[in-house]
């Protein structure tokens, strides 16, 4: 009986460690995905601001020419 209990306890311990490792892996993956998304949004935002400013400058030049 003790042997079965020890085997069960060892399996539970192993499963617990596997779940903790999976949790760490998923957490790291989520953190990396968040960083990648944040970097992309920052890049897109800078592009958008540049496009707005560039359009404004272009419109002022066109207004002065005509």
Condensed summary:
The chain has 66 residues and is mainly α. The protein has one domain.
Descriptive report:
- 97% of the residues lie in helices and 0% in strands.
- With 66 residues, the protein is an all-alpha fold.
- It has one domain.
- The mean pLDDT is 93.
Keywords:
single chain, about 70 residues, 1 helix, about 95% helix, rod-shaped
Low-confidence stretches: none
Tell how many strands the DSSP assignment holds.
0
Number of domains: 1
Q: Look at the helices and sheets and give the structural class.
A: mainly alpha
- The portion of residues forming beta strands comes to under 5%
Tally of DSSP helical segments: 1
SSE succession: H
Mean pLDDT: 93
N- to C-terminal separation?
Answer: 96 Å
Helix content, binned percent: over 70%
Quaternary organization: single chain
Radius of gyration: 28 Å
The rough form would be described as rod-shaped
- For the report, how would you describe the main beta sheet? none
Describe the protein's topology.
Blueprint (H helix, E strand, L loop, with lengths): L1 H64 L1
């Amino acid at each position: 009986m003790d042997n079965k209990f020890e085997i069960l306890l060892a399996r539970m311990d192993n499963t617990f460690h596997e779940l903790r490792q999976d949790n760490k892996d998923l957490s790291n993956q989520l953190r990396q995905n968040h960083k990648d998304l944040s970097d992309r949004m920052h890049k897109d935002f800078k592009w958008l601001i540049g496009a707005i400013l560039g359009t404004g400058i272009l419109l002022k030049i066109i207004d002065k020419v005509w």
